[in-house]
């Protein structure tokens, strides 16, 4: 396209040159009255108010060709029904008629309600219609419009059968004649042609006031060149949504990437342990796509188990992404990447999050530029994956300090992947959108991380007096009492947890208890989303050991 | 709507792909997968077929990063062109040798290709139009602001906001015009 070069190349490029005959329309356009049924025709946009259409239908070739725009109304938001279908559901959250992704080849059909093009539904507002019979003689409506004169009168009766009934003014209002004489707020304003013309873009996008909408539509009845442009611009609105008519299947990503790497092996591969983080961050990022301001500010409740009880903290979608970003930042700084909180930032995840929410109140309370944090979080995530790809094998064991504990970086990546999934789940729940569990290999790696962390957490809880003391002393490296953790599901498996000391060896034959639960229940347990004592379905054996392990699992969660 | 990929990003991505960086491939996918999938879906109207085109296009780019010439336009536009070409090729092939006896009429076939081309051009126009125009359209369309609010958000006069909205749509409407060279001759579009 033109318009990439000079300082203001678009200025005047298309200024006033768009008359009816400028030839920019596609074939078959501009004169055909069959546009509404045309597949690429203007989006069927039901009129918000029957004003211009009902009464003063457009003359000639354009008759019925351009549905009137529906100005957005603030209060008719997400009550539209939500189905868990991909694509369509998000629409309803973005607003009722912003229908972005109904079908791949349609433009945004903004109207989700039945098209009202043909039915002269009665206007809900009691205001008199500007073009209703009584109003017609008012020349003021057309103002200085020069070519306005010829048509109005004879047109009316032809195509609008029952115009009068809906417009009988309600009795509480002034005597019938009076309101028509005085320009009411919605009567077409006598705007000059140039101004009306300049409004066409805003009109096509339903981005002008009701009064202006009415004025433009009245004008279109009489100005063929504006009418032609209006049709064309309205049609162009349908082209605005060219991307992602459907949410992509997250599994497609791994298939496509694996296919590529099969065709040409990477010379700089991504470490296997970084794969879960890469995939989970991409999945969450896809969920965030297309979120409007309101959704970025949607309240989200973060829940975790603080060691003694379930606790929670309220923030927004943007606040959650900021939280993920600053905690990912711990890994970033370990790798020598810049800290998103700057130098001298606190070290623990909680303190970092509080610091971020404190300094970026917008993120937590919803006043800043929503969604800007997404880009920062994502860029940092890409940098993390890229850095460990280049770093070589040794990096996997590099310690990442989490305040009062540390994880080797390979586990820190798994931990971040798990956090990403947990918080994506929180966000999805807050905006009422479905979210699937991770790919089974990734899920299994995350559960494995939890299982490996359990003995240490158990020991910590013992030191804090929150768990029962060890039953016997076990020498490091020798088998001791063991709990069998059995997780059902594609990402599940069997894990054996040493009960007496983190240094002891777990041994299946030493198992004194079994906890069996499915992977979803494990997720809820380890993310601190359910009380630990209610998490598991199948329990058998030593009740004290079971209780200690369930509470330790819940304690793995944190803000 | 648009990915604001500066040319520098494009060149750097090309270098990283050429170097065989798996992380770059993942980033490329995250940025363009929905574009590719959607364009392919417009042409083929089939989820599985669009998945397949997505695999083929990314496979091609990963194997041939040097085929992209930054002088000729953005990486995004190049990938959109590859997708379009591959999808149209697949559609024509499937129509000449229908496996399931499900054929389109010639007119319907050409119409679908035409619509998909319009969509691809529209994507190109939106992503390459001057940023002030695009910002105004995004505010009005995606954020549902009226032009006065858009003017305030952009720090411009209401006149200017109206002008940008109109101009942006005028630019976009040119997607409906077939540029003379863009009409694919029959059989055009090699397999990737």
Overall CATH class of chain B: Mainly Alpha
Report helical residue fraction of chain B.
55-70%
Distance between the termini of chain A: 49 Å
Shape of chain B: globular
Instruction: Tell me the strand order in the biggest sheet of chain A.
Output: 6-5-7-8
Largest interface: A-B, 74 and 76 residues
Order of helices and strands of chain B: HHHHHHHH
Oligomer designation: heterodimer
Q: Strand count, sense and closure of the main sheet of chain B? A: none
Biggest sheet of chain A, open or closed, and with what strands and sense?
Answer: 4 strands, mixed
Which descriptors would you attach to this protein?
heterodimer, A: 559 residues, alpha+beta, Four Helix Bundle (Hemerythrin (Met), subunit A), Nonspecific Lipid-transfer Protein, Chain A, 3 domains, four-stranded mixed beta sheet, two-stranded antiparallel sheet, 19 helices, elongated, disordered N terminus, B: 192 residues, mainly alpha, Rna Polymerase Sigma Factor, Chain: A, 0% strand, globular, disordered C terminus
Structure description:
Chain B: InterPro entries: RNA_pol_sigma-70-like, RNA_pol_sigma-70_dom, RNA_pol_sigma70_r2, RNA_pol_sigma70_r4_t2, RNA_pol_sigma_r2, RNA_pol_sigma_r3/r4-like, WH-like_DNA-bd_sf. Chain B: Belongs to the sigma-70 factor family. ECF subfamily. Chain B: Residues 28-94 form the RNA polymerase sigma-70 region domain. Chain A is an alpha+beta fold and 559 residues long. Chain A has three domains: 38-237, no CATH class; 250-436, Up-down Bundle (Four Helix Bundle (Hemerythrin (Met), subunit A)), CATH 1.20.120; 442-555, Nonspecific Lipid-transfer Protein, Chain A (2-Layer Sandwich). Chain A contains 19 helices and eight strands. Chain A has helices spanning 51-55, 88-94, 152-159, 177-181, 193-198, 200-204, 210-220, 224-237, 250-263, 275-288, 293-296, 317-334, 349-359, 361-365, 372-391, 409-430, 440-463, 519-526, 543-555, and strands at 299-305, 310-316, 399-401, 406-408, 482-488, 493-498, 511-518, 538-541. The longest helix of chain A is centred in the last third of the chain and has 24 residues, at 440-463. The model of chain B is unreliable at 180-190 (pLDDT under 50). Chain B has a single domain, classed as RNA polymerase sigma factor, region 2, helix turn helix motif (Rna Polymerase Sigma Factor, Chain: A, Orthogonal Bundle). Chain B is mainly α and 192 residues long. Chain B contains eight helices and no strands. The longest helix of chain B has 23 residues, at 22-44. Helices cover 69% and strands 0% of the residues of chain B. Classes of the chains: A alpha+beta (559), B mainly alpha (192). The interface between A and B is large, with 74 and 76 residues.
């Amino acid at each position: 396209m033109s318009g990439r070069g000079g300082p203001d190349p678009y200025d005047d490029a298309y200024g006033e040159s768009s008359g009816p005959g400028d030839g920019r329309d596609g074939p078959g356009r501009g004169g055909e009255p069959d546009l509404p049924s045309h597949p690429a025709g203007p989006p069927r946009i039901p009129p918000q108010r029957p004003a211009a259409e009902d009464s003063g239908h457009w003359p000639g070739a354009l008759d019925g060709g351009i549905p009137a725009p529906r100005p957005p109304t603030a209060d008719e938001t997400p009550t539209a029904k939500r189905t868990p279908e991909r694509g369509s559901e998000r629409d309803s959250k973005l607003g009722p008629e912003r229908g972005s992704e109904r079908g791949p080849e349609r433009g945004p059909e903004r109207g989700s309600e039945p098209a009202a093009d043909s039915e002269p539904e009665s206007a809900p507002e009691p205001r008199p219609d500007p073009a209703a019979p009584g109003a017609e003689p008012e020349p003021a409506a057309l103002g200085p419009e020069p070519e306005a004169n010829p048509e109005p009168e004879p047109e009316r009766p032809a195509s609008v059968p029952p115009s009068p009934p809906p417009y009988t003014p309600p009795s509480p209002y002034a005597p019938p004649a009076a309101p028509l004489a005085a320009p009411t707020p919605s009567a077409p304003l006598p705007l000059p042609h140039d101004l009306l013309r300049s409004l066409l873009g805003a009109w096509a996008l339903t981005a002008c006031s009701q009064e202006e909408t009415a004025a433009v539509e009245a004008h279109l009845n009489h100005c063929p060149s504006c009418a032609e442009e209006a049709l064309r611009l309205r049609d162009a609105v349908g082209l605005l949504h060219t991307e992602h008519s459907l949410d992509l299947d997250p599994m497609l990503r791994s298939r496509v990437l694996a296919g590529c790497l099969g065709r040409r092996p990477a010379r700089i591969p991504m470490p296997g342990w970084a794969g879960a983080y890469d995939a989970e961050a991409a999945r969450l990022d896809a969920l965030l796509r297309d979120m409007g301001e309101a959704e970025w500010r949607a309240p989200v409740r973060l829940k975790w188990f603080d060691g003694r009880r379930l606790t929670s903290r309220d923030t927004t979608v943007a606040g959650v992404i900021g939280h993920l970003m600053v905690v990912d930042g711990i890994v970033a700084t370990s790798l020598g990447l810049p800290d998103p909180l700057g130098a001298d930032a606190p070290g623990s995840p909680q303190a970092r999050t509080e610091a971020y929410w404190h300094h970026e109140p917008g993120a937590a309370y919803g006043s800043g530029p929503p969604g800007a944090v997404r880009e920062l979080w994502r860029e940092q995530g890409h940098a993390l994956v890229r850095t460990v790809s280049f770093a070589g094998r040794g990096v996997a064991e590099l310690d990442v300090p989490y305040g009062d504990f540390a994880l080797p970086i390979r586990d820190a990546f798994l931990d971040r992947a798990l956090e990403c999934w947990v918080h994506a789940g929180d966000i999805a729940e807050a905006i009422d959108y479905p979210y699937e569990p991770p790919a089974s290999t990734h899920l299994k790696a995350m559960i494995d991380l939890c299982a490996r962390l359990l003995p240490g957490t158990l020991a910590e809880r013992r030191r804090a007096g929150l768990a029962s003391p060890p039953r016997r002393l076990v020498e490091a490296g020798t088998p001791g009492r063991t709990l069998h953790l059995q997780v059902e599901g594609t990402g599940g498996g069997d894990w054996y947890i040493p009960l007496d000391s983190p240094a002891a060896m777990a041994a299946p034959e030493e198992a004194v208890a079994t906890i069996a639960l499915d992977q979803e229940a494990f997720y809820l347990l380890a993310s601190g989303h359910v009380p630990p004592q209610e998490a598991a379905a199948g329990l058998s054996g030593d009740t004290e050991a079971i209780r200690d392990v369930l509470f330790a699992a819940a304690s793995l969660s944190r803000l | 709507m648009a990915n604001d990929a500066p040319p520098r990003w494009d060149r750097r991505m090309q270098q990283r792909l050429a170097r065989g960086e798996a992380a770059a491939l993942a980033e490329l996918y995250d940025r363009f997968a929905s574009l590719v999938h959607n364009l392919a879906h417009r042409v083929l109207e089939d989820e599985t077929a669009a998945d397949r085109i997505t695999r083929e296009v990314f496979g091609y780019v990963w194997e041939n990063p040097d085929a992209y010439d930054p002088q000729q336009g953005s990486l995004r536009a190049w990938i959109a062109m590859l997708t379009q070409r591959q999808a149209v090729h697949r559609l024509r092939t499937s129509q000449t040798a229908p496996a399931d006896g499900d054929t389109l009429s010639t007119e319907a076939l050409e119409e679908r290709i035409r619509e998909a081309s319009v969509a691809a051009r529209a994507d190109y126009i939106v992503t390459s139009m001057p940023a002030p125009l695009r910002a105004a359209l995004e505010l009005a369309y995606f954020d549902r602001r009226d032009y006065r609010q858009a003017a305030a958000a952009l720090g411009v006069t209401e006149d200017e906001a109206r002008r940008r909205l109109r101009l942006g749509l005028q630019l976009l409407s040119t997607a409906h015009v077939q540029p003379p060279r863009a009409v694919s001759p029959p059989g055009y579009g090699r397999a990737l």
